[in-house]
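Weekly modeling sync, notes
Attendees: AB, CL, MP (scribe)

Item 1: holo prediction request
CL wants a bound-state model with adenosine-5-diphosphoribose before deciding which constructs to order. AB pointed out that an apo prediction alone won't tell us much about the pocket. Agreed to run with the ligand included and paste results into these notes for async review.

Input as submitted:
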Amino acid sequence: MTLIDRLPAPDDRIVILTGAGISKESGLDTFRDADGIWARVRLEDVATPEAFAADPDRVQAFYNDRRRMLREADIRPNAAHEALARLEAAWPGEVVVVTQNIDDLHERAGTRALIHMHGELLKARCMACDAINVHIDDLGARTPCPACTATGALRPHVVWFGEMPLEMERIGDLLGDCGLFVAIGTSGTVYPAAGFVQEARFHGRARTVEINLEPSEGHTLFHDCHHGPAGTLVPRLVGDLLAHANRSD
Ligand code: APR
């Protein structure tokens, strides 16, 4: 039995939304699970522009820890990231991954068509000159901007609560014209990403599928829901899609 009731046409665009759950089996914590990041730290203290203005060292330390963790040798893409890269390479139509994650596990797995709507942990943005550069070491008050040399002006290139996610116009265009929308490993609590299923289904024409460890907040909005680990279910879904594409050759 396939994981999708009605498979898309092989030349249809597929849009995949991913959240922290897809990186859990790689060793990175989610936010809202019992052992998640927001159970240990208050998001108001580390993930808002106000928090950064009040205590930049605390905010930088939070992201410095996460950046160091991401670079640890045992943190690598898992079977779900790898399956999505295979899908992009072999599906006849376009496949775009829109991720809420700031880690780089999708690109390490080989995904190329990727939108980091909440920014990237391994980049820094200069508040003085707006330059965005790769930054893999700790950030602090004395780190100079590689573009304008200002110090104290670099912040993590991440979208904080109260800020506008990146590339929303492009994401809207993709959702409005796709045959399949799949949300993977996201609790469906943070907008605008939580509203993508409605955009793809009701403003567009997409079949919609949820893959998550447990029913998300908005699970009733999806045509098909499959609950279990992404590392098992995503390779199955990709296998179904590619078998279907091959049959239609
Ligand atoms: N496979 C699939 N799903 C999983 C797995 C797994 N192995 N492990 C956990 N999950 C699910 C959890 O059940 C949960 O519903 O992943 C979901 C993760 O939800 P959140 O922690 O809320 O993460 P996310 O939806 O990505 O959060 C959205 O909130 O704090 C912000 O900016 C942050 O981008 C983040 C946004």
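Recorded for review: The beta strands are 14-18, 95-99, 114-116, 119-126, 132-134, 154-158, 180-184, 207-212, 224-227.
Action items: CL to compare against the apo run; MP to circulate these notes.
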